[in-house]
Amino acid sequence: MRPETEGQLAQMIRDARGPIAVTGGATRLWPGEGQGDRIDTTALTGVTLYEPEALTLVVRAGTPLEEVRQTLAAEGQMLGFEPPVTTGSTIGGVAATNASGPRRVQAGAARDAMIGVRFVDGQGQIVSNGGRVMKNVTGYDLVKLMAGSRGTLGVLTEISFRTAPIPPVTATLALPDLDAAAAIPALSSALGGPFDVSGAAWLPGHGALIRVEGLAASVKARAADLTARLSDFGTVQEGDPEAWDLLCRTSHHPDLDTWRITCRPSEAPALLARLPEPRSLDWGGALIHVRLPRGQMPDLPTFSGHARRISGAPGILPAPDPLTDRLERDLRARFDPRGLFGSQD
User: Which residue in 50, 116, 120, 246 has its CB near the most CB atoms, within 10 A?
Assistant: First the structure.
């Protein structure tokens, strides 16, 4: 089923008698998601409002992410949270998964740029919340609730975003000799200083990476000050600016499972000590991607975040705590009382 209007989508959901798998590009599905009769949202496309001077974009959920990026770039703007790029991804999938890239450490996550949503709930009702300007804060904040809900509460049909100017100058610094664990203190030092860092990561073959952006004179001064501060951790070199695109492009290995681990950066070294060579670190060490043999669960110490297998069979550590589990079940019962929804991308 491929609805072309919000009304058609609402009618399809009202008529549904079993599980529904709502997908756009189907590029961000996790193992176990997307089960049921498929509703394809890729016909719900188009920019319904774009006011560059107000830094405001309103776009239908099935619109390709690449189309959104090109529309904004033509006006010298971007989505500040730097959503990871996957071929065929839709803007609704970005919002539904709260997909956020390296710039999250500075600009916040996708949910922080979302200022309004329209969606269809599990009873086929069309719901609108938020507005087209940041000062609109009336009512319940369903915008933040829908961000990252992965289609379990409703099907997004339209999202309003706050956009951001594309920085005129970017500089990337690298400490290529640091391994992943040794990179954590360097990244924390950069993020903890007055440097307005817009990226702090580690990649094999690149080492620790720190990015600063803005006006030319400011970037030059901050890069020089950062170089001086980071010299205690090793030799600082000019980094490869293409490395940030590599961080934003998650790929899967045919013979290995990919795990996504979120934690406090201070906990990352203890986790890394129990893991094989990681594929990448991001957000100053708060996000770890690692590959393990098919079916293997990571042997991790107790930590404050969680680990999820994002390729292969479903797997998550630790299990949700009872309070969080009850809250999630209560929300789903309110928005989807018939239990129709699985996940959305």
Answer: 120
